[in-house]
Every structure is written in structure tokens, then in C-alpha cells.
Amino acid sequence: MSRPHGVFRRFVSLLLLSLAPPAFAATPFTEGMVTITLDDGWATQFSLARPELNARSIPATYGLVTLAIHEGWGGYMSLAQAQTLVSEGNDIASHTLTHPDLTSLSPTQLAAELQDSRAWLESALGLPAVPNFVVPYGLQNGPVLDLIRQHYASSRTVSAGRNFRDTVVYELRANDVARTVPVSTVQGWVDQAIAEKSWLILVFHEFVNGTPTRDTQYETSHFADLLDYVQTRGVRTVTLAEGLALTEGRTEPDLTAGMLIYTDALQNGFANWSWADHSLDETGVVHAGSAAIRFEPDTWNGLLFHHHGLDLAQYQSIRFWVHGGTTGGQAVRLVLHDGTQMLGTTRLDTALGAPIAPGVWQQVTIPLSSIGATTGTLRDLYFQDDSGTDQPALYLDDVVLVPQ
Ligand SMILES: [Zn+2]
């Protein structure tokens, strides 16, 4: 019996291998998508951006600051203009009453900013529901996120990156198109969304004809060029609500593969605060999926991935893949930090038990107990140069916290 049994087991394991989704690849859509979001309700969005959108039949999502419209603050659109946006088929999201830093408010103020803005939009604009939220400045913490989850079905941040079918809908990533962002850069983002079948959300603020004087202004002719590019490439344009309807509607991360920090893009609310020379979109050296991290570990520079807080007691280890590039042997330190103090640290070669190898991917698993980080709140994850000198690039991919 042992022989057929062995054959059967091999068959079963082959079957599992062929049926399992590729490890640590984000789930693509059927095609790439682009969403234009216009934040705050500036009057120039109505007077300058809207005609360009309408001329191309591209609906957009407007994240409105409701008291600005209700009280007629200078520079903001009027109620009649907001109503016109709705009648023309645009999508409306709530962007609070007054655009505060939500993490600085009392519970009463926070509740008002979330609930009263939504109620005003529904009544003033005659909308049956306003389920989607845009976080002012992208600033949130645990209590803020808890309340957003109570009152809204989704939330859009300003953490850069793309979204996938399995992205958590309360951590929607969006790329800010400020004055300094060249048209060619945004075209590159559009190309990437098409190639990997991801969902690119763009954020605009004010518009101006001629040269912008503020960082939040964008030249209308450049906006028109971008919309032309989107149409030339034939990429699907969707509103925030339409894009969300095509996701899995995931409200919590799927922890069967662990708490993903990076797979093709930052995941699960991690924001890129890195100051080293790096790319999160490296496509030449990739472990799994479509992209990896390229990191130049020079002169104490580092990658920094920030989160509003994860309870380390729920995890047993941190696991990732490292590739030493052409030379290997880099001195790089991993640091887990809670924003005030270090929770644990180790060098990558110490964790590997050998120098980082050139030309191959190696898996690194670091038990949190081995670095004394079994409790505490992880807010900042660093990969940092530990040499103080100039070192060749290395690559990282599939960074994950493994649950208990
Ligand atoms: Zn805003």
C-alpha cells in the first residue's frame, strides 16, 4: 500500500500547487483603471477641471468639505455648483465638515466631522447615501479609523500606491498630483496600472490657468494633457464608487497569508516614509508578483514603512525575501519601532547567519522573540543602512508579519 499512497500524495500536492494562487501577489482586476478624485470642493475644480472632464465624458469623484460650501467660504464652490456636479453624474464623497486633522479632535468633534458632513451631503445634494470617505491630510489613528469604519463603507487615504481587487477598502491608496508632479510621471503611473491591472486613484486640489503659485495648484492645460493620455491609452475610467464595486469589498486584511506589509505595493495601511534612494516599483528583480523594492543602503539612509499601529502580540515573526543585487554582503539593519522607542532590531546578515548573497532571493524569517519584540505597537518598520558608507543596491519583496 505504501507505493500507491505515495503516488497519491504526490498527486495531491501537485494539485494544491497548481490551484493555489501565486504566493504574495496582489489580486489584479480584469483591466487597469483610473479614478480622478478632486479634494476639498475648490471653486476652480468646477470652473476649470469640470469642463475638461465633461468634454471627455469622464465622471470624477469630488470629496467635499461641507461647511465650506454651506457657509460659502471664499475659494470654494457654491451649493448650486455642487448640485450641478451631482446632476451631471459625478460621484460625491465626504471630506468632513471643516477639514481638520482628525487625530487631534475630541470624540464629540470627531463624531460631528464624520456624521454631520455625511448628513449634510445627503440632504443638501439629495443623495440617497454617501458611503465613501476621504481622510483629510491622510491623517488617522486607531480611534479615527474605528469611527470611520462605523460611519462609512470605504475610506481613501493619500498614501501613494495602487489598489488591487483584494485591497482593504478602508486603506485605499491614492497618488497626489501636486504642482511639482510632471505630466510624464503621471503617465508612467497610468502605464503601470494598465500593465498590472491595478486601480490608480489620482488626487487633485486647485486648478489654475498659467503657472501655479501654490503646491496644491495644478495647471489646467496639464490636467487636460493627462485626460487626453488616459483616453489615448484606452484605460477604463471609473468613479471611486464604481471602482469600489469592482473590488472584493475586503474590510479586513486576509491573514491566511499573514499581515502583508509589501507585495507589489505597500499593503494594509502601510505608508511610505522612506528617505533613502529607493523604488517600490522595481520590475527587473522581482521575487513574486509584478514588483519588488529596490533599496540603496547608503550613509545611514533607510526605508521607513509607517502604520497607525499594529499589536505585535498577535504575530510570531516577520518574514521577507532579500536579494543582494550584483555584489551582496550589504550591512542593513531591520528596526521595529513604536514611534517613541525601539521595540527590536537585528542586522539582516545576523538573521540569515551569513552575508546577504548576490544574485539570488533568500527568505529571512525573524522570530519576534529573538529580537525582544513580542509586545508593543508597531508603527515604524525600518530597513536601514548599517555601514555609514556607500553600498550597492539590494532588493526586498513579500514583507509579511506572520500571525501567532
Ligand atoms: Zn483635503
UniProtKB/TrEMBL annotation:
It holds the Pfam family Polysacc_deac_1. Residues 32-238 form the NodB homology domain. The keyword Ubl conjugation does not apply. The keyword Signal applies. Its main location: secreted. It is found in: Secreted. Keywords: Signal. Residues 1-25 form the signal peptide. CDD domains: CE4_DAC_u1_6s (cd10970). Gene3D superfamilies: Galactose-binding lectin (2.60.120.430), Glycoside hydrolase/deacetylase (3.20.20.370). PANTHER family: POLY-BETA-1,6-N-ACETYL-D-GLUCOSAMINE N-DEACETYLASE (PTHR34216:SF3), PTHR34216. This is Peptidoglycan/xylan/chitin deacetylase, PgdA/CDA1 family. The lineage of its organism: Bacteria, Pseudomonadati, Myxococcota, Myxococcia, Myxococcales.
